[in-house]
């Protein structure tokens, strides 16, 4: 700080006002911070936590959004579901899907596999699925679902077989009594191999097990069910009596939206309104729906941490003002003005906030990278987040130092020198 100087003229004596250069201000601020390093570190801890949480939240949100986009892959983008809503439109309407529904849809361009499936409603008196012809046998289950599915529906589910094979068009056309079991159902019924040509009994009807599904990429409920041909189920138990019948369609890449538009008309040109096609969801809507609540919650947490950090800086700066009253009085006596004192303490609190912001930005970035590495994700951090985080710490520090700096500027030199 340049001290005031006296200049004499013929008539008056003029005092040149003191000046506080910006370089001197920054130097004084960092000297005040480094004079008590332990206190400064604890003071900046709140800002470190707040800024670190801010960077980590935005980084993890962006990383999670990117991961959701990657998981919204070709499998989901090539799936179309058609629902039977005939009873909603007309109480006297029959089944919405015609008998040759699979063939009608497979003629559409871009369709790979398509098939109708519905849950069979068994009479309570006939019992459930058993591995023996008598009721109550060990290994039986009355809670196992029986799914009537066309061959195309099973193929559209993209199954992975543990043993055996899926039934085909021949089994469906000739109404064969064959079944494909999910791996969980097979284990429950005690069926571990197909070499003995095992059979299951659905009610009193025997079905030969020709395949066990280990995993599916669509319709995971098939793993907990027994699948039988649709034509066989309709012959034994009749067509479905209420809504709940759906069609699963797998398409080529980029054809799902077009297939969803054309499928109801192709299936029921007389009443396309009896069928409702569900195309793949918009990935942007999926991403925003998943991440919005998480982002808001953690941003509130980051704001709370910043408020705590600001209170800590304000408290420490105010204590420093009280401890350095003599220093303030000496500066004022040597010519420092009130705004110089204000600028000095604002610079110190701003330096604390900036240091906290830099450290918090580093910790937040390391947190995002660490989580991404552990989860085998690709870390995503926007440059604007990294650039704005230290500025956020600076603003927090300056705002926290306003009141202490104002108090310091109001101290009278004479009163300060008496202490």
Automatic annotation (TrEMBL):
Coiled-coil regions listed = none
- InterPro entries, A to Z: ABC3_permease_C, MacB_PCD, Macrolide_Exporter_MacB
Segments spanning the bilayer are 41-62, 297-322, 351-374, 380-403
Q: Where in the cell is it found?
A: Cell membrane
Q: Major location, coarse class?
A: membrane
Domain (ABC3 transporter permease C-terminal): give its ranges: 300-413
Query: Does the entry feature the keyword Ribonucleoprotein, yes or no?
Result: no
| A Pfam family assignment | FtsX
Q: Where is the MacB-like periplasmic core domain?
A: 40-257
Assigned keywords, A-Z: Cell membrane, Membrane, Transmembrane, Transmembrane helix
Q: How does it sit in the membrane?
A: Multi-pass membrane protein
Any keyword S-adenosyl-L-methionine? Answer: no
- PANTHER family hit by this protein: ABC TRANSPORTER PERMEASE YTRF, MEMBRANE COMPONENT OF TRANSPORTER-RELATED
Q: Which family does it belong to?
A: Belongs to the ABC-4 integral membrane protein family.
Its recorded name reads: ABC transporter permease
Species whose genome carries this gene: Streptomyces nojiriensis
């Amino acid at each position: 700080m340049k001290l005031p100087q006296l200049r004499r003229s013929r008539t008056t004596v003029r005092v040149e006002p003191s000046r506080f250069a910006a370089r001197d201000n920054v130097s004084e601020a960092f000297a005040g911070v480094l004079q008590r390093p332990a206190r400064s570190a604890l003071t900046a801890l709140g800002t470190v936590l707040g800024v670190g949480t801010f960077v980590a939240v935005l980084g993890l949100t962006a990383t999670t959004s990117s991961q959701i986009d990657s998981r919204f892959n070709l499998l989901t983008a090539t799936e179309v579901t058609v629902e039977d809503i005939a009873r909603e439109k007309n109480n006297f309407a029959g089944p919405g899907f015609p008998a040759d529904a699979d063939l009608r849809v497979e003629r559409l361009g871009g369709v790979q596999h398509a098939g109708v499936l519905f849950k069979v409603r068994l009479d309570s008196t006939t019992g459930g699925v058993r591995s023996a012809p008598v009721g109550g046998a060990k290994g039986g289950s009355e809670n196992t679902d029986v799914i009537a599915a066309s061959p195309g529906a099973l193929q559209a589910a993209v199954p992975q077989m543990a043993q055996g094979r899926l039934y085909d068009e021949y089994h469906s056309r000739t109404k064969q009594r064959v079944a494909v079991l999910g791996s969980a159902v097979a284990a429950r019924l005690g069926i571990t191999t197909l070499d003995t040509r095992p059979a299951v009994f659905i009610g009193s009807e025997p079905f030969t097990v020709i395949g066990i599904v280990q995993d599916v990429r669509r319709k995971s409920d098939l793993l907990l069910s027994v699948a039988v041909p649709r034509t066989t189920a309709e012959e034994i138990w009749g067509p479905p009596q209420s809504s709940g019948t759906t069609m699963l369609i797998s398409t080529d890449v980029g054809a799902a939206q077009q297939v969803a538009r054309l499928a109801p008309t192709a299936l029921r040109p007389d009443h396309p309104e009896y069928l409702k096609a569900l195309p793949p969801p918009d990935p942007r809507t999926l991403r925003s729906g998943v991440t919005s609540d998480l982002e808001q919650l953690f941003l509130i947490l980051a704001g709370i941490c910043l408020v705590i950090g600001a209170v800590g800086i304000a408290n420490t700066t105010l204590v420093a003002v009280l401890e350095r009253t003599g220093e303030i009085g000496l500066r004022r006596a040597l010519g420092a003005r009130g705004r110089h004192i204000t600028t000095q303490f604002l610079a110190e609190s701003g330096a604390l906030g900036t240091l906290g912001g830099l450290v918090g930005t580093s910790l937040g970035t390391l947190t995002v990278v660490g989580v991404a590495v552990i989860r085998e994700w690709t870390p995503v951090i926007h440059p604007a987040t990294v650039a704005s985080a230290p500025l956020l710490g600076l603003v927090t520090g300056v705002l926290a130092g306003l009141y202490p700096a104002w108090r310091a500027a109001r101290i009278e030199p004479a009163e300060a020198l008496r202490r």
